Amino acid sequence: MPPSASPAKRTTASPRKSQSSQNPGEKRKTPAKEKDKDGPPPGRDIRNFFAQPRTTAAGVGSAPAKSAASANGTGTGKRPITIDDSDEDEPIESKPPIKTENKPRASTTSKHFTSTSSSSNRPIVLDDTPSPPPKSAAKPSAPKSSSKAPAAAPSKPMPLKRKVIDSDDSDGGSRAGAGTGVRSKPNKRQSIGVGRRAVAKGKVNYLESSDEEEEEEEEEEVEVKPTVVAKGKKKEPSPMEIDDDEDDPDDFDDDDFDDEDADDLPKKSKSKTGAKPPPKPAAASGATKKSSTPKKVSAAATKKAVKEETATTPKASASSKAGGKSVQAKKEKEIDGDEADGGVKKEKQKFDWRAAAAARSAGPRAPGSKEIPEGAPNCLEGMTFVFTGELDSLGRDDAVELVKRYSGKVTGAPSGKTTFVVVGENAGASKLNKIKEKDIPTLDEDGFLNLIRTSSGPVLDEKAIKAREKEEKKIAEQAREMEKKEREGESERRRKEKALKGTGIAAKKVAPASAQLWTTKYAPTNVKEICGNKANVDRLLSWLQDWDKNYKSGFKKPGKDGMGMYRAVLISGPPGIGKTTSAHITAKLAGYSPIELNASDTRSKKLIENSTNIDNTSLDGFLHGGSLQSTTVAGVKVDSKTCLIMDEVDGMSAGDRGGVGALNVLIKKTRIPMILICNDRTLQKMKPLQSTTFNMTFRRPQPQEIRSRIMSILFKEKMKIPPNVVDELIKGTNSDIRQVLNMLSTFKLGKSEMDFDEGKQLIKINEKNTILTPFTIIDRLTHPYAFSKTNKESLNEKSELYFHDISFVPLFMQEHYLKTQPAALSSFEGQEHTMKHLERVSKAADWISDGDLIDRMIHGSEQHWSLLPLHAIASTVAPAFNIYGGMRSTGGPGGWGPSFPQWLGQNSKQGKLQRQLTDIQIRMRLRVSGSRQEIREQYMPMLASRIVLPLAKDGSEAIESTIETMDEYFLSKDDWDAFVELGVDTMNGDAILKKIPTATKTAFTRQYNKADHPIAFHKGDMFAMAKKKIADIGPAPDNDEVFEEDEPVPDDDEGANGEDEGLNDVSKDRLIKEVKKKADKAAKGKKK
Amino acid sequence: MSLWVDKYRPRTLDDLHYHEQLSSRLRSLAASGDFPHILFYGPSGAGKKTRIMCTLRELYGPGVEKLRIDQRVFVTPSNRKLDVNVVQSNYHIELTPSDVGMYDRVVIQDILKEIAQTQQVDLNAKQRFKVVIINEADALTRDAQAALRRTMEKYMTNMRLILCANSTSKIIAPIRSRCLLVRVAAPTDEEMGKVLTHVAKKERIHLPDPASQSIIATSQGNLRKALLVFEAMRMQKPDLTGDIDVAKPDWETYCNKVADSILQEQSAQRLLDTIAERMVEKVDDQLKEQIVHWAAYYELRMRMGSKKIFHIEAFIAKVMTVYKNYMMMGLAPDLDEV
Questions:
Q1: Which of B183, B216, B231 is the last residue of a domain?
Q2: At A586, which CATH number?
Q3: Where is the composition biased (Polar residues) (chain A) (predicted)?
């Protein structure tokens, strides 16, 4: 580790200096010095360096070189870095670096491939391989030479921004994927990166095409430009360098990179242009993700690549576009070469799914290690991102949110439309293949962040712009239409009002549009306006239109979609997606007049039967003076052209007893179409409806489906909310259109503009309404990012979670604190990991223990309810902090995910055992003085050898003596069962019961029931049982009397012992005698 | 077929084998006519209950031995029905309010008061008061103990209390000051030996010395345990010779297993004690202090809290950490630091 570490230091430390003085010439001289000077900072930097990867293995310092190597092994990203460093250092630190290089390579290469981590690493690898560069080829065996070659390559790009860019294109192409190029200086890089990609795809629009050209040119003239550029753009070089160096960009800040550049420059000068070619191929391969094993790349392939490159470069310089293309072409070729070679190594590419899943669940390795840039609004608009693998500092969710914040799009799998693939460690193999296949540009995390930082605004091609314009137009049009409709409605209203004014007939009051709720105002008025579920709406419509026909044919013909068989339709789906609206609109459209009965109407059986009776045969209506031809439901006439809409059918409950049943009967004979609406048709009480209605499930509309409508409403309402915010709102409400509208109308009262954060906040406020289940809560508290630096939840918000369910959440915490793999420990390995894990668990357990003490103060006699917040911390948040991380398999039947706390079950089991023990104790009390604990601890082991073990050993022979002993202690058969259950370990109930033959057990039960047994006292609930048994033997005793008498104690020995019985009541003795007699008789009977 | 423990339980103060002085004091107390509230305390198996019963017999005569058990049902403020088992003779009543957990206050308030308010009707009775025995007095909640205070004074004429506890530390000072504290110490080894031989003689068996010694050693001053072990041994090996390993009770072996597994692999009050003890036996000297410390620490918490397993888990986690640390680093963390 040490050797490799030093370079890292250098790189990180140097940036500051280099920034200040960017003179290339100076730089060249300084590198060595810089290293020395920076001595102290390096140390720190190194740690950072390692820390970023996440582990402090190096920092801990416990593990020397070996451990470091192994550590590297785990994270592919790291190794490359070390290697590079060594290369750079070569001049200065000769030997150590070399060593390190070798090791890592050997171990890591395979990993690189498998993981297909950021491409940056690869170039290095290639360098290592003897074949690639002509130079290196000469000294294939010598590690140094190889190392030099890579160094040289990096050096070029470093000096200038442009160079950097070039390197990206050529060398760094691979990395470029990683996005280093983009990252460098703001617009240019980004654009460049884009350009490249665009070129690859055949797109043209680049701002920086000129830059590209320059870059290409520069490639050849590498040495000259660096100096110039370096000054101008500090940042740019750094990214490039990083890539070249193979250092993970993630780890360093831009400043750091700059320093590196300085260092690299000198090397560059040393390195020959010839050296460059090799890096290029490597880069290319990396870009494709294929990045087949560097070693394997055959010399021939590399040579080819080199040749091609050289051939292409001139062209590139000729024209920027062409250059870009040529580069691309080169890459492709190279890739091919790689592939051919790589075929052999395919096994290495095998993707370890399990490891990847584990890594993913472990979360980012250095959460929050990088500053999240503030980008220009909408700067990612028109770009589509795909994330794969694990980023260093950003969680996946954070990254996705970031893209959305800047109006980018995120899709799950790469396709031709993907602008960038952001590749982290352990990326999925299939995605990588696809990327290679489609030649999609890739970015690493730094590149991605840089893209945001540097992008000035949306880069849209004409198509996108056109599409956007079109959409805007459409929205405006829709809004206009709305307005028109509104105006018409208004004038209609006025007209009516006017007409009725003189007549004295009260006009039906319709509120003016401005006073209406948005949900009413913008409710769809025709089928076209309904968002989503188009197919369902159409079917519903056709069903309604065909209803009469079907009715005539007796609902025998299924029709084309099978709906002809049903008299009613059951629509189910989540709230707010337009079920009721659809029903109403379609009904109206089909020429029916809809009558809606919802949960606000009483819908009891009687009401349903009476009020919906279309062909009324009762005289009820007549007697009441109503019409004979039709009944009224909710004051509306029902005739054959009526459609009954039963809304919120699953809300039929308590007051509506028999409602669903009656409804079902009605459905079977209805003469008008019925539309039933519910949220959840899987409920038990909806069962009867399953067979009699056609089930139609409404799904949440896609955000796109809603967006345009919302946008036009916003347009009409003159609110300015960017589409990405609208998308967030829609997503945040789970496509609940109604809620979005309500939220927006409320929001409009205060402001008419909303930015991304406000949108998020609004969603959050509205989200709060739901009570989370403890399962969700525990997940939110312990997921791998729960306490990472990127997590924005405050301590208060975390403890809020506890208040969702103050009694259960702590139990869930206790259940799960042992079941996680703490994310904070991902850097430790082996014994140390176990140790640290134990420490954390112990801490968590201590907190939980504290929590219990607090709980006692709250729920105990003191009732300190003000301690609840403290309890929230101690019982829930603090343990979660200690152990948050991926959930291990719970091993239960469910396998994954939170399980129900066992404490509850165990506690009730303990309570039951305790009760049984109390029962046993109180029965034995007449003989024994001990308390419960003493009985369990001292008597039971002894008694077990008298009444349990003999049964197992001697079988039926032991029954008699067993029963005798039991009688002696007034133990009943039930107590015997409890007795066995109370055993632990070898005396464990089940284990013991297994040992006792079934025959013995039955014989034991039989024999026990045959005879009467003395009992210490009657328990209240024993009477029922006792009655039965006694009935067999003779007349049942009067239980009431017995009860009143305070159960006599059968007291055989005592009678013999004490002569002073005078004071005892006679009844007792009598009873005892009776019992005895019976027992004796029974015994005699047995003997006979 | 009674077990020996019960068969040879002394019934009068004169039959008691040890603590002669205590016996004579109790005898004179009973005779004095001014019988105070008494708090008996001492370790399990030392003979508290036996002594109480003997004292009662001294007070009332053999009638107190006519025990009957009664189950009272009472309703908690939250409308839960709870059963309380009451053991009583004509002269005394014995309660274990801690059976009903946190509702013990209700038991004390309702039942005890009811008893206290009824006067002795039998004019021929030897004493004008009834005796109420409260078992496991140290498990009474604070509220229940507070409820006792006034009752103890107000109904002194009708009722005397005998509290029975393992330790006085959990009994509030006002109650302690209202009682005569009687400590029943565990018998010494010789005294136990005497009792054992007495029982052996009655059973007409010969108890060899080594057997007696090993019994005494395992029972740790618990006479009940000693007698039970004695009988168990006798069942195992009727002649009681040779080397006899005293069978450990199931729960103890179980705890040992737990302790062993804790030490092997680091990945209820009594329980905690036993586990800790076993571990102390097994670990290196340096760690012993630690384990005892943590055992005490968490046992206190266990008593203060309500969910015992939480604290046991914390204890185990702690011990594992300490042990692992020790195994890895070779040194135990300083207790002061922790």
A1: B183
A2: 3.40.50.300
A3: 9-24
Inter-chain touch A848–B90, beta carbons under 8 Å: no
Take residue A175 and report the two structure tokens written for it: 């990395």
Under 8 Å CB-to-CB from A234, ≥6 apart: which residues? A18, A19, A22, A254, A255, A258
Instruction: List, in sequence order, every residue forming a beta bridge with A636; answer none if it has no partner.
Output: A633
Distance of alpha carbon A248 from alpha carbon A20, whole angstroms: 23
Cβ-defined contact of B3 to A943 (cutoff 8 Å)? yes
Q: How far apart are CA A284 and CA A290, in angstroms?
A: 9
CA distance A653 to A646: 14
A999/chain B closest Cα distance in angstroms: 26
Nearest chain B alpha carbon to A945: B232
A852 neighbors B307 (Cβ within 8 angstroms): yes
Quick one: how far is CA A546 from the chain centroid?
46
Q: Given A842, A938, A1053, which is nearest B228 (Cβ)?
A: A938
Highest mean pLDDT among A114-118, A384-388, B45-49: B45-49
Residue among A585, A502, A506 at smallest CA distance from A544? A585
Indicate the SS3 state at residue A648. coil
A378 and A401 fall within a common domain? yes
Q: Which domain holds residue B283?
A: 265-329
- Give the pairing of strands B68-75 and B81-88: antiparallel
Kindly state whether residue B231 falls inside one of the protein's structural domains.
yes
Q: Quick check: B304 and A856 CB within 8 A?
A: yes
Q: Tokens 């660096």 — which residue?
A: A226
Contact A1020, B73 (CB under 8 A): yes
Confirm if A713 and A748 have CB atoms less than 8 A apart: no
Residues A591/A641, Cβ–Cβ less than 8 Å: yes
Residues 117-156 of B with CB under 8 A from A: 135-136, 141-143
Contact A174, A287 (CB under 8 A): yes
Which of A769, A784, A804 marks a domain boundary? Answer: A769
Q: For residue A459, how far is the Cα from the chain centroid? A: 32
Determine the Cα–Cα distance for residues A225 and A227; give it in Å rounded to an integer: 5
Q: What is the CA radius of gyration of chain A?
A: 41
Helix (H/G/I), strand (E/B), else coil: B86: strand
Q: How is residue A386 written in tokens? A: 């795909």
Q: Please report whether residue B37 resides in a domain.
A: yes
- pLDDT over 70 percentage in chain A: 51
Judge contact between A678 and A686, C-beta under 8 A. Answer: yes
pLDDT tens readout for residues A657-707: 666 777 788 788 787 888 888 888 777 777 888 888 888 888 888 877 788
Q: Does B273 touch chain A (CB under 8 A)?
A: no
Contact present, A458 and A424 (Cβ < 8 Å): no
Same domain for B203 and B288?
no
DSSP string computed for A125-192: HHHHSSSSSHHHHHSSS-HHHHHHHHHHHHHTTTT-HHHHHHHHHTTTHHHHHHTHHHHSSHHHHHHH
Domain boundary among A982, A1015, A1048: A1015
Residues A30-49 have a mean pLDDT of 43
**Is the residue at A783 inside a domain?**
yes
- Residues A718-745: tens digit of each pLDDT: 888 888 888 888 888 877 888 888 888 8
Per the CB < 8 A criterion, the answer to whether B138 and B170 are in contact is yes
Partners of B305 on chain A (C-beta within 8 Å) are 849, 852-853, 855-856
Among the partner-chain residues B87, B90, B253, the one whose CB lies closest to the CB of A986 is B253
- The per-residue pLDDT for B271 is 59
Q: Could you tell me the sign of the dihedral formed by the alpha carbons of A820, A824, A828, A832, in that order?
A: negative
Return d(Cα A577, Cα B116) in angstroms, integer: 70
Give phi and psi for B166, each to the nearest 5. -85, -35
Residues B166 and B243 in one domain: no
CA angle A718, A723, A724 (to 5 degrees): 140
